[in-house]
Amino acid sequence: MLKRYLLAPGPTPVSPEVLLAMAKPVIHHRAPEFAELFGEVREGLKWLFQTKNDVLILASSGTGGMEGAVANFLSPGDRALVVNGGKFGERWGKICKTFGAHVTEIKVEWGHAVDPQAVADVLKKDPAIKAVYVQASETSTGVAHDTKALAEVVRTCEGTILVVDAITALGVFDIQTDAWGLDVVVTGSQKALMLPPGLAFVSVSEKAWQVAEKARNGAFYFDLKKERASQVKNQTAYTPAVSMIIGLQEVLRTLKAEGLDAVFARQERLAHAMREGVKAAGLSLFPKMSPSNALTAISAPDGVDGQAIYKNLRVQYGITAAGGQDHLKGQIFRIAHMGYVDTFDVIMSLAAVEMVLKSLGHSIKLGSGVAKAQELLLAKS
Whose CA is closest to 254, among 200, 209, 195, 326? Predict the structure, then answer.
């Protein structure tokens, strides 16, 4: 028998309570009971996003939300600034180019966070830039960009909006949408929201809606103005993922019962224990600065293939983590600790990493990383 553990940076584990909620009979999406359900989750999402603005719910992966965050705000020929510090920053650039935007990239070495001054310099040089696209948490590298500092830069530019991919950030660490002046924030269901893949969420500021009124790009399914017109009436423009929204109701109730500050503190505690455990085991973190609390990217030891570590975690111990992407394939492996995870997920994953490395011939003292994590987690329990 091999018990399975899901510690990939998406999808993430789903609680039994949410699974049971999603197993309830499907209701019709035009029935009054759906409108009541939808109204509750809309208000809950405003709380989670820390915004007074509408948070739109789309039946798609997070990338659908990203596409909507380009198609609705840029016209062909508009200028966009993309922070490319990893695989998903690169995706922003590809989406913008697909919709005919002229893209300026700030290329950030993988493992590093963007310098807000670099963004300020580009905007000063090219004030025609309509939108800045960035990740709050770059999933491919385990790095968090300083979203608050970037917002301070962008909001001084009257005609420019800041668009944030918070797909592995929202619900993990503090993202103050309104207080910081974030114009468009995107997230997905299968990360810290502890749901299966299938929902994207997009919050839009009034400044961004004004930009959308002038945008001339093709959007049908991801037409955010059309969705807003429906969703303010507690309906959707097209058929929604009803069972997912029932699950979302349960998730939001659970998060509210815990409280946002407590959620962020829990995620920070687990991330800190994981990082310190990794270092105590003699391993190195891949991020050179600003590690994300959503996941830990770990450099493979010299002479050990990171893909072999990732594969053996799954094959030997049933733990699905993640390997490196593009030029980092074989150099790093990644373990997530966001959403429905707890103390013993961290301890178990560190123990498995030590055992895999030992079996691959790497010299490591078993229990060294586990002991450090135990100390830290016990102290804050």
Answer: 195
pLDDT in tens, 181-215: 999 999 999 999 999 999 999 999 999 999 999 99
Query: What DSSP character marks residue 192?
Result: T
Dump pLDDT digits (tens) for 125-155: 999 999 999 999 999 999 999 999 999 999 9
Q: Are 193 and 251 in contact (CB under 8 A)?
A: yes
Average pLDDT per 10 consecutive residues for the chain, totaling 381 residues: 96 98 97 98 98 98 98 97 98 98 98 98 97 98 98 95 98 98 98 98 98 92 97 97 98 98 98 98 97 98 96 98 97 98 98 98 97 94 66
Three-class SS state of 108: coil
Question: 68 with 57: CB under 8 angstroms?
Answer: no
Dihedral over Cα of 202, 205, 207, 212: its sign = positive
Q: What residue spans define the domains of the chain?
A: 16-257, 259-379
Which CATH number is correct for 259-379, 3.10.580.10, 3.40.800.20, 3.40.50.1100, 3.90.1150.10?
Answer: 3.90.1150.10
What fold does the segment set 16-257 form as a domain? Aspartate Aminotransferase; domain 2 (3.40.640)
User: What's the Cα-to-Cα distance from 134 to each of 14, 138, 163, 258, rounded to whole Å?
Assistant: 27, 9, 6, 29
345 in Cβ contact with 6 (< 8 Å): no
